[in-house]
Write a structure and sequence with these properties.
- It is a single chain.
- The mean pLDDT is 91.
- A hairpin with a 2-residue loop joins strand 3 and strand 4 (183-186).
- Helix 2 packs antiparallel against helix 3 and helix 2 (35-55) packs parallel to helix 4 (92-116).
- It is built from seven helices and four strands.
- Helices cover 68% and strands 6% of the residues.
- It has a single domain (7-212), classed as Up-down Bundle (Four Helix Bundle (Hemerythrin (Met), subunit A)).
- The protein is globular and about 60 Å long.
- It is mainly alpha-helical.
Length: 228
């Protein structure tokens, strides 16, 4: 059976501007660079981001390094698919599979590094990672069952989340703590809890919408007149 590529859906704030920027860069990359190189670069950058957060417990310059590696990750992760499409080298099954396996390991490196730093507690990091994986599973199941791959929720996509993480990391350099209702917490503990709850709510809303749509598409057969 012929493979049918899923429709990509991105409604994030920066989607249109980012698309134009990525295409501009893709047509100017040297021919020796291919999409696999960019995917590998994105994974390496996430590993280095996690290590930079871990190193920041000894020196705050690790936070600056983390921001730089997040930028490198954006370059590789966002550009690999665009480069393949611009050059007509699409490999939809291979590209989707490898790209999102890499994303899973990248999230592990990033959030693991935060959990090993002094800026986020390991328990909150574990909760955040769990929420991320739950959302990933929901998105991939919807991609298979409904034929569309959603890249953003609530007008926020990977690029917007990277920018929020970079902004929060900059704040860590001067204000690593937050005061809520008279109690002092680590800033990234507060951010991690908010992010985990937001991801969990997104999973619930998205799963409910997809289950309703699939139920309508495949309703139960009528059983009127059946005798037992």
């Amino acid at each position: 059976m012929e493979f049918v590529e899923s429709t990509r859906i991105s409604t994030s704030f920066l989607a249109d501007a980012e698309r134009r920027c990525l295409r501009w860069m893709a047509v100017r990359l040297p021919p020796q660079v291919n999409s696999d190189h960019l995917t590998a670069l994105a994974l390496f950058a996430m590993l280095m981001t996690g290590l930079s957060y871990w190193m920041a417990r000894a020196h705050p310059l690790g936070l600056v390094a983390a921001i730089l590696w997040i930028a490198v990750n954006w370059f590789g992760d966002s550009l690999d698919g665009t480069l393949a499409r611009v050059r007509g080298h699409q490999r939809p099954r291979y590209g989707f599979y490898v790209d999102h396996v890499v994303d899973a390991f990248g999230a592990l490196f990033l959030i693991g590094g935060l959990g090993l730093s002094s800026y986020m507690s390991p328990l909150i990091a574990m909760g955040l990672l769990l929420a991320y994986f739950l959302l990933s599973i929901e998105v991939y199941l919807a991609t298979y069952c409904r034929g569309h791959f959603r890249l953003s929720f609530w007008k926020l996509g990977p690029t917007e989340l990277r920018l929020l993480l970079c902004a929060g990391t900059l704040v860590l350099l001067v204000h690593p703590h937050a005061v809520l209702w008279g109690t002092t917490y680590r800033l990234f503990d507060v951010g991690g809890v908010v992010a985990a709850i937001s991801l969990a709510l997104t999973v619930i809303v998205s799963a409910t919408q997809n289950a309703r749509a699939l139920f309508k598409a495949e309703p139960l057969p009528k059983t009127a007149g059946v005798r037992y």
